[in-house]
Amino acid sequence: MSATAMPRQHRRIEWRRVALHGGALAVLLVLLYPLAWLVATSFKPADEVLASLALLPSRLATENYGTAAEGIEGVTLLQLFGNSLTISLGAVLGNVLSCSLAAYAFARLRFTMRGPLFAFMIATIMLPHHAVLIPQYIVFNQLGMVNTFWPMVLPKFLATDAFFVFLIVQFMRGLPRELDEAAKIDGCGPFRIFARVVLPLTRPALITTAIFTFIWTWNDFFTQLIYLFEPEKYTLTLALRTFVDTSSQSAYGPMFAMSVFALLPIVLFFLAFQRLLVEGMANSGLKG
Amino acid sequence: MANTSTAPATSAAPAGTGPKADTTAGTGTKGPGRPPRRERQGAAWVFLSPWVLGASVLTLLPMAVSLYLSFTDYNLFDPPSWIGLRNYVQMFTEDPRLLRSIGNTLLYVLVAVPLQLALALAVALALKSMRRGRNFYRSAFYAPSLLGASMSIALVWRAIFNDGGTVDNLMSGLGFHIGGWVNQPGWALVSVALLTVWQFGAPMVIFLAGLQQIPQDLYEAAAVDGAGRWRQFASITLPMLSPVLFFNLVLQTIQAFQVFTPAFAVSGGRGGPADSTLFYTLYLYERGFTASHMGYASAMAWMLLLAIGIVTAVLFRTSRSWVFYANEEAG
Lengths: 288, 331
Known about the structure:
The structure holds 2 protein chains of 2 kinds.
Chain A: H1 5-42, H2 48-51, H3 63-69, H4 77-108, H5 114-126, H6 130-142, H7 150-153, H8 162-173, H9 177-185, H10 190-201, H11 203-219, H12 222-227, H13 236-245, H14 252-284
Helix pairs in contact in A: 1-14, 3-14, 4-8, 4-11, 5-8, 9-10, 11-14, 13-14
Chain B: H1 2-27, H2 37-69, E1 72-73, E2 81-82, H3 86-93, H4 96-128, H5 134-147, H6 151-160, H7 166-173, H8 185-198, H9 201-212, H10 216-224, H11 229-257, H12 261-266, H13 280-290, H14 294-322, H15 326-330
Antiparallel strand pairs in B: 1-2
Helix pairs in contact in B: 2-14, 4-8, 4-9, 4-11, 4-13, 5-9, 9-11, 11-14, 13-14
């Protein structure tokens, strides 16, 4: 290749990079538009929601947030937020505890039927929730747990989110076995090995599990729709549901002000842990 | 799904190291206080007990009960009465709305999943060749996958695709007057599909991770042999990426079959306009929890389970001809 060809090739690569970044920014703009729209609309006065096509409101109509704070059906926004938080934190605790226990057994201990049970556990990742929905509802109904938070939280303490068991298993398999062996020689039983050696090292996978569980539970609509029917028990998601029937434009401001609160924890979690979340997702598709 | 396809292999891997540990235990019997095998098994079952309880009481048993209920007429209050195959017969002969919901769901899966995966792959390829800013875009593009499942975004979607909403205005400006997509039977489903496509970030992240695992020297060798960029894509990238593509395809298809929240929001909870967004799960919810036909809804749930099982099995079967595992050749 002659010396004159080099700079030209270099320039071509420069153009490619500009095009790549231009394209990526364009995609970013489209992706972010609904979010910008949501925030902007939450500050729009009622008469501007449709009349004006501008994204930015002419004045900041903070009264939408005042209306949203009053909540719905006599239940304040704070209470709705608290309900969502209680359910999500309960689910996080349950998933981290039960999934790490099960994962340790699958990753490190030997027991009869481990192969078939592991295969079954993996298969339940693909099981549609609807296949168990109605009998589960009947069980929770019999236990008097309908219209309580238990149907959202209790299953998490029983490691029903197989996806996370799998995620933690994959992570634990990456830990050197020599550590277990060394602890064993030092006289540790399986419980102490788990608590003192494996669990601390598994922290990244546990944090990923915690954050994903929080976000998915916080976002969940279907389960809450089925189990919660008294306004005092409503979550933010369910409160938003009451706006689904009334699509009148005048309710737009308060509705999207409430939506902002419903998205806020997810956005904050995402900003704080985006690297962890993205890598957790990336690892789910690859062999450990 | 890569999960499942690796399940036998991965579960075999520790089993392979297991005997090794056994032999060291066997030869090194001097090691004091090595607990007997049964006791070690006991420990495993203690660790496993929450999962065993959950899997039996909240998964296996409900599946069996759901199957039983699907042969009954049950309204949650009176005891179920056995009616044999009536629910299933009714589904396919006397319930046009059910057939409609199947059609809608299939159409949605066939539109949304390929579009979403194609976009995810295209963006992953673009990001891979990017030197700076890759991690930033990767994170930013992933965000909608977390937010998009929420009721908030579903409501935003309904508003911007509504009459006078942004999309409506934009299309009118371009000379295509469609009106409010969510009010038109032909377009409401498209708006829901676009919400799914908007969440291309999750499969994109997995594609990108897969792309980064492809050894660079394969490309260098191909370049030396004079392979152009398309040739490299077709002969290296696609085959090397096929397990990841398969994983994404299975995962997204299964998820798409169960879509609920956006259809609920866009249609005001009823699957409208004119049942055009009446997805299978929405109809299942309506039959079971609004109309209290729990037996019928159970039959629907089992048909869904069956459908997902069949689709997954078909995908696995066809995957043999197009999914390439690098270690197959080595092994």
